[in-house]
């Protein structure tokens, strides 16, 4: 069995793989590597355009791809499905960093941290004005779209701060850490008056453009909107309109339809919008956590051809 | 019994006070009010320079002052003690907002929120650089100076994020939510290598200038230092030196020795320093929470001359 690397691993991880029986490791391709030289590769770890080229070659040997991300919307899912290739992701490892990221913005907003940073740049001591704006998180409501690993972890921390959590998913099924759940598309009064709204949905045909003008127009609580899901789920023009019309008190976008954002984009200077460069899922041991999933799946796959965790449903797209 | 107001109350609160037997209310003084007209006032709610003037008058009638703050270092404690006046503060009501404020900065720092805000102003998409810096809070150590209401509440939330909490107080006595406690002045290795250090000490002779050069020099963990206590506890020049020499990764000052900070102060532009204008203890129901303490003490005081909560030890200064 041949494993092709499209993501860097450490020397120690290399040794762990080398100790597995019946496994040959094919190192990262260089700019000169011919995809045809990978025709006998069975398994790929990571993904990039080299993988796309290999997948398009007839008689490629691919049986399984282990991505290093949770979202796999950037991969050629139709071709993967059509060729009968299995796909696993790293869903789960991003839950902790993304939940901490979201809580960080909730508190930075509610406690006047974002406003203080702005005032500092202008050398302005705005004590009285800010004291009238800051509020405690306790007893405010957060609406979270996506009740998987990430949404659940966010809701868990929100409960630590005595917040009310409502969740939205495909069918409105209940989920741990949520005080109530609804089908995405429902607009209960708790959503309309929520103080915080978070998108943690995977990108699928259904969730593309989900947060558009009519979504923002129904809101009455002047919430802070946070996108830690995927950029194309939000209609950026509609979001900017909602900010300009104060339907939203603010917005945080960690993901955008087109990344990186060009230096001359007007979005950088949109009032009450905070941008971060797609970092919410990062943490110091990311590579090790992703490798741990590869390794567990690999041991099982070499033993009996089964994958034991994080297999993607190619029809659902997550 | 006469109660003089030096802090605004609502109409509803006025009615609550009016319903108490044997209590006369003296409204807020104007610029023209002669302090001598308050000579028969027994109780004061709030404090300002008018109170200072009244206190200096011979034959004033003051028996009890209810402050609207937790820290009372700005009041003439020696004169209050010498005249046998009782003093109560609002210690306790700031614990929740200050703890949320501190957690907000921990997360804004660890998750790259502060760095993203800075990059946004420069229109820079710094994804790779930031992804290498961000880290999860879990398993990092926070050292908290002050283990009262505020320190305990901060430690509580830090435990929610699976952090290790060490506390410092006068004698090193144990306190809830702290994994270990030490006497202030001790320098255990857990302090030296801590990732976060928070000052929540009251200002007394002992804590004035406590955080000076030798304190910062002992640190090896390049922590973020946060002051939510009182400004004069930190030697600002030593702090700036520690930032310049990277003994500290960053610092957050919500309080300063002199407030407000002048617009032309160089401190505004100190790299890796985040300033907020003394807002950490604020929240939307501040006035109501402070009044609730006044009202409970007042009921007891009118009944039998006793104060039932938040009496300040005038020798200790908190």
Please tag this protein with its features:
2 domains; Rossmann fold; five-stranded parallel beta sheet; 11 helices; 32% helix; homodimer; NAD binding (chains A, B); D-isomer_DH_CS1 (chains A, B); 318 residues; oxidoreductase (chains A, B); oxidoreductase activity, acting on the CH-OH group of donors, NAD or NADP as acceptor (chains A, B); alpha/beta
How would you characterize this protein structure?
- 2 copies of one chain form a homodimer.
- With 318 residues, chain A is α/β, with parallel strands linked by helices.
- Chain A folds into 2 domains: 2-92 and 284-304, Rossmann fold; 95-275, NAD(P)-binding Rossmann-like Domain (Rossmann fold, 3-Layer(aba) Sandwich).
- Chain A is 32% helix and 14% strand.
- Chain A is built from 11 helices and 12 strands.
- Chain A has helices at residues 11-18, 49-56, 77-82, 95-110, 113-121, 127-133, 149-160, 189-192, 213-217, 236-244, 286-304; strands at 2-5, 24-26, 43-45, 64-66, 86-88, 141-145, 164-169, 180-183, 196-199, 224-227, 250-253, 273-275.
- In chain A, the strands form 2 sheets. In chain A, strands 8-7-6-9-10-11-12 form a 7-stranded parallel beta sheet, with helices on one face. A 5-stranded parallel beta sheet of chain A has the order 2-1-3-4-5, with helices on one face.
- In chain A, helix 4 packs across helix 7.
- The first copy, chain A, is elongated and about 70 Å long.
- Chain A starts with a strand and ends in a 14-residue tail after the last helix.
- In chain A, 45% of the residues are buried.
- The model of chain A has no long low-confidence stretch (mean pLDDT 97).
- Chains A and B meet through helix 4, helix 5 and helix 6 of A and helix 4, helix 5 and helix 6 of B.
